[in-house]
Amino acid sequence: MKHSYITAAAVGIAALMSTVAYAQEVDFSGKTIELIVPYGEGGGSSVHARLLAPLLEEELPGHPTIIIRNIEGGGSVRGINEFAARAKPDGLTIAALATGTYYSYILGEETVQYPLADFIPFLTSPYGVVSYGLTSFGLTGDPEHDVKYLQENKAVYVGDGPADADMPVLYCFDLLGIKLNGVFGVSRGESRQAFMRGESQVNYDNMASWENELKPMVDDGTMVTLFTMGFQNENGEVVRDPVLPDTATCPELYEIVHGEPMSGVEKEVYENMFAIRMVTAKTLVLPAGTPDDIVQTYQAAIERVVARPELQSPAAQLELGGYPQGTGQVAIDGHRTASVMSPEAKAELDRWLKDVWNID
């Protein structure tokens, strides 16, 4: 299926034309819309929501007021459970999803009471992911050398855990035949500090940290990049991340290691992890059952939002990572891939967690 991304330079005119009839019928004049953010006020999802909400107010018909309500707890589960239970399909309650929302659902956590796959996305904000390692450990920046070196020399990895946000990167390491000594229960910021102190030899971050936090360590020779998760282009293909076009993707290194492209159930799990960690890193949704007229009104409005010049400011681009925003069918496809996993892929993920990390 061909995908099309919306950028500030090119608004999806055809999509706007197809939704204009709906947009004329929906009017939010005098209304207040609640945007549920299932994380704390200072977190990335909250910052993302506060960047977009004022612009969405201006682009929705009737210029409603959007209030942001932070509901912390359970790695986003508490807030999204409440959204699923209480939000009416009238366009007056929307929610922000992030990686934790998807992981909890995919892993079948008992606290999850939300029908993730039934939510209707109208925006997906991708964020790239890069893995890196210390040169003092013997890493050189040559991908073939570094993969082989890490296969033969077990590195320490410090992070939150294989059943949490670290899952895609740790799965990539395993696909490449790299075994790690994991130290878990540590936040992303603390993980980077441990790496900088030399307490771990490999780590990862999202690309929002690249320019200010990571690139200086590459420039001074402290570290080298190992791989990225990749980037999904307009044709739905995983290609090199535009932020780091000289760094190989995990699928590229897999082919070097195994002599053939990733396939079968491993590829399906990777695509799911990729969709969660990169494509739908931050997603805005309407509740299940929202009528088409309201859905398409939001789709048209968010297309205008992402085309606005305010989102081209340095501060906005830093928050959005410089990536094109996914709307329309791109958002729908990304959310479906991230939230739907076949029984075979789920069995493979469960096997990996148990066999590699002893997690039942």
SSE blueprint:
Layout: H1 13-25, E1 32-37, H2 44-59, E2 65-70, H3 77-86, E3 93-98, H4 99-106, E4 120-125, E5 129-134, H5 143-152, E6 155-158, H6 167-175, E7 180-183, H7 188-196, E8 202-206, H8 210-219, E9 223-228, E10 231-232, E11 238-239, H9 250-258, H10 264-279, E12 282-286, H11 292-306, H12 314-320, H13 328-339, H14 343-357
Parallel strand pairs: 1-2, 1-3, 6-7
Antiparallel strand pairs: 3-12, 4-12, 5-8, 5-9, 10-11
Helix pairs in contact: 1-11, 2-11, 6-10, 10-13, 10-14
Provide a brief overview of the structure.
The protein is α/β, with parallel strands linked by helices and 360 residues long. The protein contains 14 helices and twelve strands.
Low-confidence stretches: 1-23
CATH topology (level 3) name of the largest domain: D-Maltodextrin-Binding Protein, domain 2
Write down the domain tally: 2
Quaternary state of the chains? single chain
Molecular shape: globular
Mean pLDDT: 92
CATH level-two architecture of the largest domain: 3-Layer(aba) Sandwich
Helix content: 40-55%
Q: Could you tell me the strand content as a percent range? A: 15-25%
Major sheet characteristics: 5 strands, mixed
CATH superfamily of the largest domain: Bordetella uptake gene, domain 1
Return the CATH class of the largest domain: Alpha Beta
What radius of gyration results from the CA coordinates? 20 Å
The total count of strands amounts to: 12
Number of helices: 14
* Distance N to C terminus: 36 Å
The secondary structure category is: alpha/beta
**N to C succession of SSEs:** HEHEHEHEEHEHEHEHEEEHHEHHHH
Give, in spatial order, the strands making up the sheet with the most strands: 2-1-3-12-4
Organism: Devosia ginsengisoli
Keywords: Signal
Signal peptide: 1-23
Family: Belongs to the UPF0065 (bug) family.
